[in-house]
Design brief:
By secondary structure, the protein is of the alpha+beta class. Helices cover 42% and strands 16% of the residues. The chain contains 13 helices and nine strands. The strands form three sheets. It has a four-stranded mixed sheet with strand order 2-6-5-4. Strands 1-3-9 form a three-stranded antiparallel sheet. The chain has a two-stranded antiparallel sheet with strand order 7-8.
Length: 281
């Protein structure tokens, strides 16, 4: 029998108070669970300077070693697969389901629950619905293909890479300048629901740009010849609503409630065959 249901009620009350201040007609609301409340919302690629230098190599090595699967894949789909296998990317996973984020914040994905658990948090983000992008948008293609560049490349390489990838990059100068502005943005992307795990986890992601040397330049011909370097950019402050703190002593109770009341567990959130069999052990 489950006890301390008040622990769960306190979390939901905190969530309700914070959501009431957001106009859900105007904003898309997403969540991310953090096992340690002190962690920041930075993509894996940005957590180590060496990762950023090797980003192009990560993509090219995957294509070289698995050509049947990746040689004709779009860059954003390659990054999605790299993210799935915990390779550093410029993506940050989020979910539109608060309970899924709560599960991950409480360490529910670990089979061996840590004895040194920390106070956790679920972060709430809001993005204007007009600014949310589909995975096959030109903006997503532009930012994703930064991964195919190396430091010192001319910015004019990017449209050529995008054209090879998706067959699109508007060639007129005004659109070129707009695309150049996009590369230093962070966007919320609605992903394809073509994967059992993504469907189960209500998964979306933030995609982070980041190129030095093009800020404030509105001349298309100038932009094409500028040599650029990759840089780290933060999560925009206007996206961050608040944190819901989850004391470490409450994790076990919350995970039991999520399983018993909502059928949210490692098995239901990772329903792919290899995960299901692995979780039987």
């Amino acid at each position: 029998m489950l006890t301390n249901i008040g622990v769960f009620q306190n979390v939901l009350n905190d969530l309700s108070r914070k959501l009431l201040a957001i106009d859900d007609e105007e904003y898309e609301i997403v969540y991310r669970g953090f096992e340690d409340a002190t962690w920041d919302d930075t993509p894996y690629l940005f957590r180590n300077p060496n990762f950023l230098k090797k980003e192009k190599d990560f993509v090219e090595e995957v294509i070289r070693n698995f050509p049947d699967e990746f040689s004709s894949a779009h860059t954003i789909d390659i990054l999605t697969q790299l993210q799935h296998y915990e390779c550093p990317t410029r993506m940050l996973d989020v979910t539109s389901n608060f309970l899924v984020a709560l599960f991950f914040a409480c360490g529910g994905w670990r089979k061996d629950k840590k004895s040194d658990a920390k106070n956790a948090a679920v972060k709430i983000y809001k993005v204007k619905k007009n600014d949310v992008k589909s995975i096959d948008s030109e903006t997503v293609t532009t930012i994703a293909n930064i991964a195919r560049m190396k430091d010192g490349d001319a910015f004019g390489m990017l449209p050529w890479i995008c054209e090879k990838d998706w067959g699109m990059w508007q060639s007129d100068d005004d659109q070129f300048v707009q695309n150049a502005k996009d590369v230093n943005s962070v966007i919320l992307v609605k992903t394809r629901l073509n994967n059992p795990r993504v469907r189960a986890q209500f998964g979306d992601f933030f995609l982070f740009g980041g190129l030095n040397g093009i800020e404030g330049i509105n001349c298309a011909s100038c932009l094409r010849n500028i040599n650029v370097r990759k840089k780290i950019i933060p999560m925009p402050k206007e996206y961050i609503v608040s944190d819901i703190l989850i004391p470490k002593q409450d994790h076990e109770t919350i995970l039991k409630l999520l399983d018993k009341c909502f059928k949210i567990s490692l098995t239901t959130l990772c329903p792919e065959k290899q995960d299901f069999i692995k979780n039987l052990i």
